[in-house]
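Researcher: Sequence recovery benchmark, item below. Answer with residues only.
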């Protein structure tokens, strides 16, 4: 069974930091682009960041640029999202996803494997 399992979410005060992880099992995604998305209550899912299969290329939503860093460890089939200077508006369920291709993608239609999500809550 192919799975993407996120971890690292939690409750943090504004200005704090968290690091999310996403571990793959059942198959390798080392040659696939990967991404992070989030969904806040009452809102649609939105793109956060993506990374190419080698990690050489990354792409960020304007709302997180300069605060979040996406990275990957292909030896461990694990994706990361380092989140600094967190704001209350970053509160959401965060999902990792694996793309069909090897590049870095913004559209969720490019992704065909999704994790179950991890909750991030930022208090003011």
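Model:
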């Amino acid at each position: 069974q192919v799975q993407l399992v996120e971890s690292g979410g939690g409750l943090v005060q504004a200005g704090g930091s968290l690091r999310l992880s996403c571990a793959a099992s059942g198959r390798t995604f080392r040659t696939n682009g990967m991404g992070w998305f989030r969904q806040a209550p009452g809102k649609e899912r939105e793109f956060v960041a993506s990374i190419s299969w080698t990690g050489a290329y990354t792409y960020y939503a304007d709302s997180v640029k300069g605060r979040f860093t996406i990275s990957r460890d292909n030896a461990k089939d694990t994706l990361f999202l380092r989140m600094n200077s967190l704001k209350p508006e970053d509160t959401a369920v965060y999902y990792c996803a694996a793309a069909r291709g090897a590049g870095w993608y913004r559209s969720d239609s490019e992704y065909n494997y999704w994790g179950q999500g991890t909750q991030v809550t930022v208090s003011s």
